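Quick one, probably user error.
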């Protein structure tokens, strides 16, 4: 072996050294990198560019087309700092290239005065506009191409996420040094997989994605690294499922017993074809000689719960017990009310256990559960308590499973020896995303509602036009109907949040960055730290000024459980006509008389969650009206919301929303495995996900513990990829 050749093992191990080991990473720069989530050398070399400036395809000022994105290279003729308003600095740059003059306006970027001087050559990339007699760009990406960085015309310049304390140019330099630090590292992918898909090596891919010689090379590097990320994810998810069942005797549930037959006979309606297919999938998984891990995905109102209840009856036929956990007390009690009579008719014993169950009643319920006389125990997080000890738990059903962490799901599964697991979610997830999130699960979909529901319309309104929404609400109240007002509790902090997002956007010159930085509400956990007083003020204002003749009440996640129950019960009974609420109404609320919903600051929600929210109206025989109020002035945010007006298909909306989001936002705020998925786009990469899923399954069938010499590096990297991922979705 050549003594000058890099030590491959040392280079591979260097990935997990502190980023401070990289040349030019001083303590101050290490702190700036940490703000970007970069702590190790691995983090640095996987701190991928957000986009590229392709100077090989640049336009001149004369040839650039107005209204299109383009890159123009020229010389700075003049640069000025102006202040049209006291807190609105703008830098105006006059750029010339021999064919014409381009005016560049950079809002809130006064530091450009220190970075750019007359005579410097720069490249600018952005949308070309025309006004006041000149072609112009506003807040484009600006790159000095002869400022000591060694950049030359014809290069592809990567644009890495940066901070005010660490510019894109400095991040690029440090990434380059990080790549030198790990040069020669081992490739964890088995040779047969690299050959099968004609993938470049890991080292070559890391170099090419950061410093490509062409956009085609960048695409090839990305293809390799996307596949690697997904293969690691699928292996980890499948390993989790294997570990849960290892050394335990799986339950083969009886799926043709008397309880199940009686339950089916007690249903007051016939299941739809989709419901029957999903039921059959679930029962087949329960009857199999291996531990079931099944995910039932159903859009709002598709009747998932009654399908899942067939599995609960099958557990009773098998001499086992089933646990059904829901995220809220409202939903748990609603399951008891809806399923209880059917269980009674089927001879299935059941109980409901929540945090507000009185102590004496709780003790009695727990005694019956421990004695094996309760077939089905329905509850909330209360089921996770140590004193909940079923005699023989053979099935766990988790409703709205995405609201529970991996540790919580594991704790519930530990209530039995090797119970079958059934997860329910109303979040519309395309198959590719479901495989990325739940690689070790089998899947069933219910996409259509069982019965034709009333018509439901959705309208997007600006803040100025919100009066139309409240007029519609008053008209509904006059007809004796009821109204939801969703107030996301961002009141006091909204301006701060917008300013922070806007600052980051202007730094990087990207409007979409602003739009998605602001989407941060996906469930009640996102509201922590916000001011409940904002919602209280909203409710008080609506009571005093808008709905004077009607009763207005407030429901939010921090109310005591008993108080939540009381508020919901009064709304359900019609004693309260207007419910001002946070997203706690998303699941578990079924009030057919509620026909109008107004969502304030709607641009702060993902489309899938807005779709679930609007599923709360139009549930009876009266049509529903949904008004999405937005103060946003960005085209991207308004285009996204406009999709809600044109389709009522949750899966179509989910795919559209995912196609817009950046890779890092794909899996949502609390899908913590996302931290290991930096490049994957589940819409664009659907076929790669399918391939990685199949390859992971084949690898584990051949070598269940990945102990073969050719697989050891793969096993190590898959473990390390998710070491800090925290909670990773899966069974």
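Nope, works fine. Designed sequence:
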């Amino acid at each position: 072996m050549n003594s000058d050749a890099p030590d491959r093992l040392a280079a591979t191990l260097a990935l997990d050294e502190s980023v401070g080991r990289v040349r030019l990473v001083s303590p101050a720069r290490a702190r700036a990198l940490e703000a970007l989530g970069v702590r190790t050398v691995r983090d640095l070399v996987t701190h991928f560019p957000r986009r590229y400036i392709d100077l090989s395809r640049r336009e001149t000022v004369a040839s650039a087309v107005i209204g299109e994105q383009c890159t123009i290279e020229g010389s700075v003729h003049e640069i000025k700092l102006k202040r049209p308003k006291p807190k609105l600095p703008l830098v105006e740059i006059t750029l010339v290239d021999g064919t014409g003059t381009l005016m560049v306006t950079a809002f809130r970027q006064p530091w450009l005065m220190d970075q750019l001087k007359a005579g410097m050559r720069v490249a600018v990339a952005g949308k070309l506009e025309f006004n006041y007699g000149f072609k112009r760009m506003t807040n484009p990406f600006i790159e000095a191409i002869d400022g000591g960085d060694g950049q030359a015309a014809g290069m592809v310049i990567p644009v890495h996420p940066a901070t005010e304390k660490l510019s894109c140019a400095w991040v690029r330099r440090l990434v380059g040094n990080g790549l030198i630090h790990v040069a020669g590292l081992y490739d964890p992918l088995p040779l047969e997989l690299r050959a099968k898909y004609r993938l470049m090596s890991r080292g070559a891919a890391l170099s090419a994605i950061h410093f490509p010689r062409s956009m085609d090379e960048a695409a090839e590097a990305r293809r390799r690294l996307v596949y690697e990320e997904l293969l690691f994810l699928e292996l980890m998810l499948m390993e989790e499922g294997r570990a849960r069942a290892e050394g335990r005797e799986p339950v083969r549930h009886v799926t043709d017993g008397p309880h199940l037959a009686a339950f089916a006979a007690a249903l007051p309606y016939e299941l739809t074809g989709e419901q029957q297919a999903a039921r059959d999938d679930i029962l087949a998984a329960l009857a199999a000689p291996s531990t079931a891990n099944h995910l039932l995905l159903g859009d709002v109102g598709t009747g998932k719960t009654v399908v899942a209840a067939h599995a609960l009856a099958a557990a009773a036929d098998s001499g086992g017990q089933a646990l059904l956990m829901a995220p809220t007390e409202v939903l748990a009690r609603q399951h008891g009310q809806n399923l209880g009579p059917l269980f009674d008719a089927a001879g299935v014993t059941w109980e409901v256990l929540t945090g507000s169950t009185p102590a004496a009643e709780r003790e009695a319920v727990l005694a019956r559960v421990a004695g094996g006389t309760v077939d089905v125990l329905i509850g909330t997080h209360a089921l996770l308590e140590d004193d909940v000890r079923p005699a023989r738990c053979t099935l766990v059903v988790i409703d709205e499973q995405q609201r529970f962490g991996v540790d919580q799901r594991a704790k519930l599964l530990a209530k039995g020896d090797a119970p079958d697991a059934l997860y329910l979610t109303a979040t519309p997830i395309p198959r590719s995303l479901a495989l990325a999130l739940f690689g070790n699960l089998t899947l069933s979909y219910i996409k259509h509602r069982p019965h034709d529901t009333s018509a439901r319309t959705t309208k997007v309104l600006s803040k100025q036009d919100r009066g139309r929404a409240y007029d519609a609400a008053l008209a509904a109240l006059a007809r004796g109907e009821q109204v939801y007002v969703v107030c996301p509790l961002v009141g006091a902090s909204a301006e701060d949040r917008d300013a922070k997002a806007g600052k980051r956007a202007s730094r990087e010159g990207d409007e979409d960055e602003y739009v998605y930085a602001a989407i941060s509400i996906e469930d009640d956990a996102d509201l922590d730290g916000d001011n409940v007083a904002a919602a209280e003020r909203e409710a008080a204002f609506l009571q005093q000024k808008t709905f004077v003749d009607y009763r207005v009440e407030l429901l939010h996640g921090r109310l005591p459980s008993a108080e939540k129950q009381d508020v919901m019960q009064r709304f359900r009974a019609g004693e309260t006509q207007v419910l001002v609420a946070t997203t706690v109404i998303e699941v578990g609320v079924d009030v057919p008389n509620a026909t109008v919903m107004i969502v304030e600051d709607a641009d702060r929600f993902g489309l899938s969650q807005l779709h679930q929210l609007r599923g709360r109206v139009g549930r009876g025989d009266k049509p529903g009206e949904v008004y999405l109020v937005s103060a946003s002035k960005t085209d991207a945010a308004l285009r996204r919301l406009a999709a809600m007006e044109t389709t009522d298909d949750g899966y179509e909306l989910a795919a559209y929303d995912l196609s817009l989001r950046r890779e890092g936002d794909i899996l949502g705020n609390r899908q913590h495995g996302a931290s290991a998925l930096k490049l994957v786009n589940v819409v664009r990469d659907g076929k790669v996900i399918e391939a990685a899923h199949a390859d992971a399954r084949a690898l584990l069938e051949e070598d269940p513990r990945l102990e073969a010499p050719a697989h050891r590096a793969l096993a190590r990297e898959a473990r390390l990829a998710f070491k800090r991922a925290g909670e990773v979705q899966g069974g």
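Residues 215-245 form the longest helix (31 residues).
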